Amino acid sequence: MTTDAQLPARASFDTWGPWALLTVGVVAAAISAPLTGMDRLGKAVSVVLVPAAVVLQLCWGRVKRKRPGPSRAGVCLYLLRWAIGFVLTWANPFFAFYAVTGYYTAARELPRRLVMPGLFLTAVTMAGSEIGGWPPHGPILWLGFFLVLAVNMGMVTVFTRYAVQEQERAVVQADTIAELERTNTALQQALDENAALHAQLLLQAREAGVADERRRLAAEIHDTIAQGLTGIIAQLQVVAGAPDLTTARTHLERASALARHSLGEARRSVHNLAPVALAADGLPEALKKTVTEWGERTGARAEFTVTGTTEQLHDEVSATLLRIAQEALSNAARHARPTRVGVTLSFMGDEVTLDVRDDGTGFDPAAVPERTHSGGFGLDGMRARAERIAGSLTVESEPGHGTAVSARVPLVRDER
Q1: pTM, entire model
Q2: 135 upstream amide cis, omega within 30 of 0
Q3: Side by side, which strands form the sheet with 340-348?
Q4: How far apart (Å, rounded) are the C-alpha atoms in residues 107 and 73?
Q5: What 3-state DSSP class applies to 281?
Q6: Can you tell me the distance from the alpha carbon of 341 to that of 325, in angstroms, rounded to the nearest whole number?
Q7: CA separation (Å) from 371 to 205, 331, 345, 361, 381?
Q8: Helix, strand and coil in the chain, % to nearest 5
Q9: Where are the alpha helices (DSSP H) in 38-138?
Q10: How confident is the model at residue 205 (pLDDT cuts 50, 70, 90)?
């Protein structure tokens, strides 16, 4: 196999090389005729065979244009050219310039099985020229002929083998390049498919992020507005049945304070900020105030406890635990009617645990109905909050024996 870079050079030599070598051979033979003892017969043969070589080369060009590569016509033309070169070299050794063309064209003009025989014929012609011309006179010249022929054939064999190896390397290289092109094409297709898949995944991730953000904001608004309104309604109900003006005024003030508090929570939640209770205080202080205010609103005994070494937590962790506590307390007030509630915040190495326990009516966790559009976020909302920051939430309850809600999240410190 010939590479694309070699094709123009070989085509040029096949077209003009034999003409140039024939011209050099004719000129060299004419100049050296007196020195080589070229007789009248040799000159007459040359006068006939040189035009024959010209006609042969013209015919060769036409045949190659119609049938490029090895063919029967090519074999006949090669043998005819060798015969002309052999006779011309017999007439004058300097015609070997023309005969040497066989070395360069055998591999392209002859079938593979005839390449070495063709090269051998050319070597015979060249060996005869190199010992002074045909025929060798005496045993010494015949011995010299065979020695020179052996050297020529040895060189031909070496160069032929080298050419075959080069050809094999060229074939391997071409196959490798073709394979690389196929691989690059497949890789480009894979990259295009990956780009499309990446764009699709980005779109899905964006949609999932939007949905998750909507759920988060819905939960935040529920924890602020819904719980605040529940507390306000409870206070107003007390006002409606208050036995005296002082009691009514007290509960009205609590309802007003709760409304202002809920309004601040709603505004901060919409702007994705931390709960109001965390704006000035850390999580332990915010939980303590939340538990105390809840106890004052419901009349139940509410206690808050901190265990372990207190750490300054990341805002997201603090907000999550505070929201879970608020939801658990709100659920207890709406459904359990407890007389006593205990909230415990525990710092335990690389985890923070929030436990909310009450002695209310309790329920069967396995029988909790799914959340409806008109209901609160409840247990599902608290669990989603904990899982959003790689935490977990467990609920233990039994009808008539109260409820225990436990949230466990990683302890992520505030590095600011």
Answers
A1: 0.42
A2: yes
A3: 301-307, 340-348, 351-358, 403-410, 392-397
A4: 15
A5: coil
A6: 11
A7: 25, 13, 28, 20, 9
A8: 70, 10, 20
A9: 40-66, 72-91, 96-99, 101-109, 112-130
A10: low
